[in-house]
Amino acid sequence: MVPYTSLTATVDGTSATLVAKTLSTSAPLIVKGASYPKGPTLADDLEACLSVDHEGAKRGTYRIDTVSFGVVLHNDGGQMTIPWQHITDVVAQLRA
């Protein structure tokens, strides 16, 4: 896995856009259904993955799998690996 130089996340309505940048590329992943007024959000699911016994999450539009180096976020548009050290920043950005 190539280390990210930055990983940003924004929410627009019920969709989230995560953008991973390396020295040579920028790769966005749009996650529909990431935020609703009631119920768990993508930020909640990512934060829960920081718990030792958590195995990930599966929602209607996305799935999160925990792996040894972080989590892998899957949806119809592809997948993105989020290393452990970036999860709290991504959660904060999604909640901002």
What's the short story on this structure?
The chain has 96 residues and is an alpha+beta fold. It has helices at residues 42-48, 84-95; strands spanning 6-12, 15-21, 26-31, 56-58, 62-67, 70-75, 78-83. Helix 1 runs antiparallel to helix 2 (84-95).
Overview of the structural elements:
The chain is an alpha+beta fold and 96 residues long. 20% of the residues lie in helices and 43% in strands. The strands form two sheets. It has a four-stranded antiparallel sheet. A three-stranded antiparallel sheet has the order 1-2-3. Helix 1 (42-48) runs antiparallel to helix 2. The N and C termini lie far apart (28 Å).
How does the SSE layout of this entry go?
Blueprint: E1 6-12, E2 15-21, E3 26-31, H1 42-48, E4 56-58, E5 62-67, E6 70-75, E7 78-83, H2 84-95
Helix pairs in contact: 1-2
